[in-house]
Inverse folding.
């Protein structure tokens, strides 16, 4: 790993050191659109953290890989998966340096992680009719949740542009319209499907 990746690893290791896998929850995009998941196949939770998405996918019968730069998170998640005999492998991986191979997954889930250069590689990594579930922070926000303004936040409708080669199955981005005390704010989600 290069120096930037090592710094990121140290940052995320510190964040996850006092956290538990049992605290991890699947993302809104995955819970809300779980009915679109295939009955079997290979799934990837990219930038998995403590694996809320990975655990959800494995519990739904998908052979799941969880990749994260944090060795602390990966060790905790791997131990949990082994103890509960889940069809899941957790791996320390700098996804920018080692993205997924072409046509290798039926489902890819990415939440609260944004590296725009990976977008075409994620599309390529899907098998025919594979699904991408993506959810992350937007520049339009009503509180301090998530990263500060800058490159780790989506612009208006940016997911639609980044994944324009996928067939749209679901999209949600409420921005700052209407009653800001209601709805789902500060994030965008997309479910896209690769052509057969």
């Amino acid at each position: 790993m290069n120096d930037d990746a090592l710094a990121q690893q140290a940052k995320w290791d510190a964040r996850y050191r006092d956290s538990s896998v049992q605290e991890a929850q699947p993302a809104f995009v995955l819970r809300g659109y779980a009915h679109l998941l295939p009955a079997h196949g290979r799934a990837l939770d990219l930038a998995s953290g403590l694996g809320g998405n990975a655990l959800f996918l494995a519990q739904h019968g998908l052979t799941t890989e969880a990749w994260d730069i944090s060795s602390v998170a990966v060790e905790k998640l791997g131990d949990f998966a082994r103890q509960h005999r889940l069809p899941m492998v957790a791996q320390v991986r700098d996804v920018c340096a080692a993205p997924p191979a072409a046509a290798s997954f039926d489902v890819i889930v990415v939440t609260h992680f944004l590296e725009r250069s990976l977008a075409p590689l994620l599309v390529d990594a899907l098998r025919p009719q594979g699904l991408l579930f993506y959810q992350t922070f937007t520049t339009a926000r009503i509180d301090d949740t998530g990263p500060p303004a800058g490159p780790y936040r989506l612009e208006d409708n940016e997911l639609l542009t980044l994944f324009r080669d996928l067939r749209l199955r679901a999209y949600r981005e409420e921005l700052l319209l209407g009653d800001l005390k209601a709805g789902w704010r500060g994030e965008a989600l997309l479910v896209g499907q690769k052509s057969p």
About this structure: The first strand starts at residue 42 and ends at 46. The helical segments are 3-16, 28-32, 52-59, 71-83, 119-125, 158-162. The chain has a mean pLDDT of 92.
